[in-house]
Design goal:
The protein is built from 19 helices and 27 strands. It is an alpha/beta fold. A 5-stranded mixed beta sheet has the order 11-12-13-14-15. Strands 16, 17, 18, 19 and 20 form a 5-stranded antiparallel beta sheet that branches. A 4-stranded mixed beta sheet has the order 2-1-10-9. The longest helix is centred in the N-terminal third of the chain and has 17 residues.
Length: 587
């Protein structure tokens, strides 16, 4: 990737590479800074297959850090600053990162980490005066296709996350394919609105830099992405999840979205045609592409482009394999299934990862020899799919309990392990509640010791200290016992059927004013809760930043003006109704 970026820099040195608010970096400036930092990394003995941790916000520093790591021949280890300290410490120690690139503020927040977890730390704010003393010419370090490009940690069923090892061969194959398939050069570039810990970001971060276009770095929140779309036309692509797509449809004016983006690339979880109606109706010229692919096969390995004559409801196919990629549907005995029948999806080709870092036994289970081609490794996805008559693949379901929420892959077993570490929890099960297409949330059913005080807030806090926000269940339900199947295992299907209604905290207090009634109705619809009391907490009912955006948009349409800050500071309906500004109907 770094060589492709350097070649583009030579062609368009003064073109704008990065936009961050009012600040901009040209290709020449970005390349020079990355070269200076890369030389500092090499001075600190960073070499091919070394891991460099990057714990930075979405700023130009982050882009410099990623490119510098690749230029030094190393692999970057993305560390989301919003993750709990304990999780960051585990990833740093497990990966054996040789250097950590961060800022002084984040470094001070990591002081509570065990000393064994902390590698050599470079703060790109306070240490930059020394770093910029290095020469800014390209380094020309030899990098083999099989060397690591990045390691991304995903949820692990055994209680700890696992690091998927992605090679330069796989990354380059995907990016070169994506640049052509998505016609990135025809637009102005792409907004980057998600963390580099989420491999969805790879597409929007790297493809513009290969064709002389711009990367637009955005703050967190769907509002910032909506604002970016309204401020500019002709984006090359926007990479989002189905949950993002639904939220954008709530906040964007229908008559202003045509021409804003050339291609919507949607990935991370199953996609339904119902979610696309807003864009198909109001921006018919925008390409809509369903991109499927596990982290272990570099972002995307198959795609399907929605056509105007496609149906209005039902699942969107995951399409056909990208370049240098093979898809196989096999049965339990590793034999091909007949066309039209359901089988487990196995992926082969250039994008297959090297395995899991320090998890050889797990890697042997997921990365297997291809029974149809000697010498080729296949990745066992755990996804069930079938081949349609038109040659496209369609996702069916999972073979295990793994779930996808807002594009994040989650192993319930990891959450359950943390829950069982809490006092008074003798057993538990975490299931996904799917209330409608593209609307999912986690619900934890807890077998709680008899006679012990039930404290849902304490359980939630304990999980928040160990797990990322997207892995904390939206609701906790106390049960005297967990239902079992005839084989003595927890009956997760029975639990999932009970998870549609979340029990309110404390005593139910009905809405008392028109504003409270309006907000309660909106919360009930958006959060999929049958009954909402005015003292119920937004986050305890499963609220998050995306759902908050939907609530604000619907409140505005109902004549209640609220800001995102107000929603996050006043988390109950009674508090929120008291600060809401009532907008006259004529407005």
């Amino acid at each position: 990737m770094s060589g492709l970026f350097e070649a583009q820099t030579a062609r368009t040195p003064e073109a704008t590479a990065v936009v961050f608010g009012e600040a901009q970096l040209s290709y020449r400036e970005l390349n020079a800074r990355a070269n200076q930092l890369a030389r500092e990394l090499v001075r600190r003995r960073v070499a091919p297959d070394s891991l460099v941790g990057i714990c930075l916000e979405r700023t130009p520093q982050m882009v410099v850090a990623v490119l510098a790591t690749l230029k030094a021949g190393a692999a970057y280890l993305p560390l989301d600053p919003n993750y709990p300290i304990e999780r960051l410490a585990f990833m740093l120690q497990d990966a054996g990162a040789s250097v950590l690139l961060t800022t002084g503020a984040h470094a001070s927040g990591m002081l509570s980490m065990p000393e064994a977890c902390m590698p050599t730390t470079l703060c790109l704010d306070s240490d930059w005066q020394e770093i910029e003393k290095h020469a800014d010419e390209n380094l020309n370090i030899d990098i083999a296709p099989g060397n690591l490009a990045y390691v991304i940690y995903t949820s692990g069923s055994t209680g700890n996350p696992k690091g998927a090892m992605i090679t330069h061969r796989g990354l380059t194959n995907y990016l070169q394919w994506a640049v052509e398939a998505y016609d990135v050069a025809s637009g102005c570039g792409a907004p980057v609105h998600s963390s580099i810990s989420f491999d969805l970001t790879v597409t929007s971060l790297f493809t513009p830099l290969m064709v002389g276009r711009s990367v637009f770095l955005l703050p967190d929140g769907i509002e910032s992405l909506a604002d970016a779309l309204l401020q500019r036309t002709n984006y090359s692509l926007v990479k989002i999840t189905p949950a993002h797509l639904r939220a954008l449809a709530e906040v964007l004016p229908p008559d202003q979205i045509a021409g804003r983006v050339r291609a919507l690339v949607i990935g991370g979880e199953a996609l339904h045609y119902q979610s696309l109606s807003f864009w198909r109706e109001h921006a018919p010229a925008t390409r809509i592409i369903n991109e499927y692919g596990p982290t272990e096969t570099v972002v995307g390995c198959s795609v399907y482009e929605v056509a105007s004559h496609d149906p209005l409801d039902g699942p969107v196919p995951i399409g056909q394999a990208i370049a240098n990629t093979n898809l196989h549907l096999l049965d339990e005995d590793m034999n091909p299934v007949p066309d039209g029948e359901t089988g487990e999806l196995f992926i082969g080709g250039d994008g297959v990862a090297r395995g899991y870092l320090n998890r050889e036994e797990l890697a042997r289970d997921r990365f297997v020899a291809n029974p149809l081609a000697a010498g080729e490794t296949l990745y066992r996805t755990g996804d069930l799919a079938r081949l349609l008559p038109d040659g496209n693949f369609e996702y069916v379901s999972r073979v295990d309990d793994q779930v996808k929420i807002r594009g994040y892959r989650i192993e319930p077993g990891e959450i359950e392990t943390v829950l069982k570490q809490q006092g008074n929890v003798s057993d538990c099960a975490v299931v996904v509640s799917e209330t409608a297409a593209d609307e999912k949330r986690l619900v934890a059913f807890v077998k709680h010791d008899e006679g012990a005080q039930w404290d849902e807030g304490a359980l939630r806090k304990a999980l928040q200290e160990k797990l990322p926000e997207y892995m904390v269940p939206a609701a906790f339900v106390r049960l005297a016992s967990l239902p079992l199947t005839v084989n003595g295992k927890i009956d997760r299907q029975a639990l999932a059927s009970q998870s549609g209604t979340v029990i309110s905290n404390g005593d139910f207090v009905a809405p008392r004013t028109p504003a409270e009634e309006t907000l309660a109705g909106i919360w009930s619809d958006v959060l999929k809760v049958d009954r909402v009391g005015v003292n119920d907490n937004f986050f305890d009912l499963g609220g998050d930043s995306i759902l908050g955006t939907l609530i604000l948009a619907r409140a505005a349409r109902a004549g209640l003006k609220l800001s995102p800050v107000q929603l996050f500071e006043h988390q109950t309906i009674s508090e929120l109704a008291a600060v809401a500004a009532v907008v006259p109907a004529a407005a």
